[in-house]
Automatic annotation (TrEMBL):
Reaction equations catalysed: L-alanine = D-alanine
EC number of this enzyme: 5.1.1.1
Binding site for substrate: 139, 313
Keywords for the protein's UniProt record, in alphabetical order: Isomerase, Pyridoxal phosphate
GO MF term (any one): alanine racemase activity
Record-given protein name: Alanine racemase
Keyword Isomerase in record: yes
């Protein structure tokens, strides 16, 4: 176990590295012969890129995907031996920086490819990079029609990409026809580059079918315990949990209002607890409980209770009228934990668990638990 950080306020975020490792290993098993990478963009989905990078490397992961080259530089310090791909592609005029930190851009346009090939030529070394084809996502990536031109450029230069990849738009919806269509287009691309390893699947693609595994899979959310496929039970172990303290408890009467805008009017005499959490901590204002529509839910002593009124910047009221037993200021409220999953908050805020996970890292200290032997934590 790591040395526990403490604050005067108490509360905080806990990252279970044991669960993280179990999740990665379970995905690695499902992916069979395909290599299992780990996507650690967005500070490892809000869980800490350096510690998570070291932990997954220790568990056997060798291939990592970051979004930005700066994330790559950070990760490189933590895992000197890893292969690191940069999903944003090649930021213009920075090729030498990628090479200096041994980062592989996932090249996504003709101008990026040309710049990288020129860089390799000047350097006299085929510096590794991957290629991203856009099979319908319409985000970054070569267009389908550019495949022949890319092939010609590669043949002329003799450059062998490390990998060819694409990204699925709808793999979280298991019956969506888009996934099969993208897979078909991807195979069309791969036919032109028969000797190059291929990668298509995110977490959902990995879990959906081995048809999408190819040579490498790229899970992100499932490694962190989030739900990858809609409408199915989530088989992954939770990695992230969070508790915050109660600041004050008050009895309020039926008809009184709660919080900014007097947006919630009490329908009964109620016991309110004011917890030290607000939108400045990443607890979205969309989780306000203003009657009618669904608001956020938290747990107190194992009882799930609603948010009442608007979430403000640093404080939020919850209704503890129905919580049995004594509740006092300083007691901790479960924001994410055994009773409240990341994806429950995502649903209540009308977004997805990914956004909750990457945002809920506010001002509370992060503690790592179940730290594998020999892993240094930040
Ligand atoms: C974020 C991302 C992934 C990981 O997706 P998850 O749904 O979190 O598993 C894989 N590939 C690319 C290109 C991505 O941008």
């Amino acid at each position: 176990m790591s040395e526990q950080q403490t604050t005067i306020l108490g509360g905080g975020i806990e990252i279970d590295l044991g669960a993280l490792v179990r999740n990665w290993q379970a995905l690695d098993k499902v992916s069979g012969k395909a290599l299992t990478a780990a996507v650690v963009k967005g500070d490892a989905y809000g869980t800490g890129i350096k510690t998570v990078g070291r932990t997954l490397y220790h568990a056997g992961a060798r291939f990592f995907f970051v979004a930005t080259p700066d994330e790559g530089v950070l990760l490189r310090k933590a895992v000197p031996g890893a292969f690191i791909f940069v999903l944003d592609g090649l930021v213009p005029r920075t090729a030498a920086d990628y090479a200096a930190h041994n980062l592989m851009p996932v090249l996504a346009s003709m101008s990026q490819l040309t710049e990288w090939l020129d860089f390799c030529l000047n350097r006299g070394e085929a510096t590794p990079a991957a290629l991203h084809f856009d099979t319908g996502f319409n985000r970054v990536g070569f267009r389908m029609q550019e495949a022949d031109l890319v092939k010609r450029e590669l043949d002329q230069s003799g450059f062998q990409p490390q990998m060819i990849m694409s990204h699925l738009a709808c793999a979280d919806q298991p019956t969506h026809e888009m996934t099969r269509k993208q897979n078909g287009l991807f195979q069309g691309i791969l036919n032109r580059f028969p000797d190059t390893p291929a990668s298509l699947a995110n977490s959902a693609g990995l879990m959906a079918s081995k048809d999408y595994h190819y040579h490498m899979v790229r899970p992100g959310i499932a490694v962190y315990g989030g739900k990858a496929i809609n409408g199915r039970p989530n088989p992954m172990a939770p990695v992230f949990s969070m508790q915050v303290p109660i600041l004050q408890i008050k009895e309020a009467r039926i008809g009184e209002t709660v919080g900014y805008g007097a947006a919630y009017r009490l329908r009964r005499d109620s016991r309110l607890a004011i917890m030290a959490l607000g939108y400045a901590d990443g607890y979205f204002r969309a989780l306000s409980g203003i009657g009618g529509q669904q608001g956020g839910r938290v747990a107190v002593n194992g009882t799930v209770v609603p948010v009442l009124g608007r979430v403000s910047m640093d404080m939020t009221a919850i209704d503890i009228t129905d919580v049995p037993g004594l509740v006092q200021p300083g007691d901790l409220v479960e924001i994410v934990g055994p009773n409240i999953a990341i994806d429950d908050i995502g649903d209540a805020a009308r977004t997805i668990g990914y956004e909750i996970l990457t945002t809920l890292n506010g001002r509370f200290p992060r503690r790592y638990v179940n730290v594998p032997e020999g892993i240094e934590v930040d």
